[in-house]
Amino acid sequence: MRQKIVAGNWKMNKTLDEALALASEVSNMVKDEVNTDVQVILAPSFISLTAVGKLIEGQKRLALAAQNCHHKTSGAYTGEVSVDMLKSIGVSFVIIGHSERRMYFNETNEQLAEKTNLLLQNNIRPIFCCGESLEQREKGIHIDFVKQQLTESLFHLDTNQLQKVVIAYEPIWAIGTGKTASTEQAQEMHEVIRKHIASKYGEAAAAEVSILYGGSCNPTNAPELFACKDVDGGLIGGASLKSRDFVSIVKSFS
Ligand code: PEP
């Protein structure tokens, strides 16, 4: 059975005190209210990672994620954070390839392949984001585009490594826009992703990979999205900044 996952991407929000307050609220609510076997992941900014990590330590349903890492091991990359550094503070997941990083920081599929390798070598699981723009969808090239993102960044991995990667399908037109993909659109692309993985790694391996949906997911639409056959949870932006909304989403699995 593949893992159900809900991850909160706090992006460039929350000071240290605010991050601790949010983490504490989420931690208490998850402890008191969540009985399903779901992995809940918090991705605060680098500034708050260590403190939030300490706060949630020992809470078995909660794990710590970073929002990015550098694709080289170490060296003269002023302002960057290495995988080694993240490992040293107990990070267990890292979000890579978010469309905001691809768009504003020119991240390439090739760099994401390097990040994936470094993370897996350090026993950290990548949450690999993929997804098309509205223009690509309207041109009908969205499926090929997403397949290419997966092929170029992940298909050099062996089966064992690939199964440690969490995929997050995030149509760019749905991120932070209030426009959610319909359940049909989400299920269609999740199935495409799983079949694409199966074409290289076989159906049994593909069945074990968690594929999350991201893009204006909220407590109202999460239950129907999470009920789709190939949707194994969500990567949540805006709604992860309010503890009640985020935990409601976590509780959306039927
Ligand atoms: C995201 O940026 O990963 C995301 C899904 O954002 P939002 O939920 O705000 O659309």
TrEMBL record:
One of its GO terms (molecular function) is triose-phosphate isomerase activity. It catalyses: D-glyceraldehyde 3-phosphate = dihydroxyacetone phosphate. It is an enzyme of class 5 (isomerase). Its main location: cytoplasm. CDD domains: TIM. Pathway: Carbohydrate degradation; glycolysis; D-glyceraldehyde 3-phosphate from glycerone phosphate: step 1/1; Carbohydrate biosynthesis; gluconeogenesis. Keywords: Cytoplasm, Gluconeogenesis, Glycolysis, Isomerase. InterPro entries: Aldolase_TIM, TIM_sf, TrioseP_Isoase_bac/euk, Triosephosphate_isomerase, Triosephosphate_isomerase_AS. It holds the Pfam family TIM. Its EC number is 5.3.1.1. The active site is at H98 (electrophile), E170 (proton acceptor). It is found in: Cytoplasm. Substrate binds at N9, W10, K11, G176, S216, G237, G238. The keyword Hydrolase does not apply. The keyword Hydrolase does not apply. Involved in the gluconeogenesis. Catalyzes stereospecifically the conversion of dihydroxyacetone phosphate (DHAP) to D-glyceraldehyde-3-phosphate (G3P). Homodimer. Belongs to the triosephosphate isomerase family. This is Triosephosphate isomerase. It comes from Rhodocytophaga aerolata.
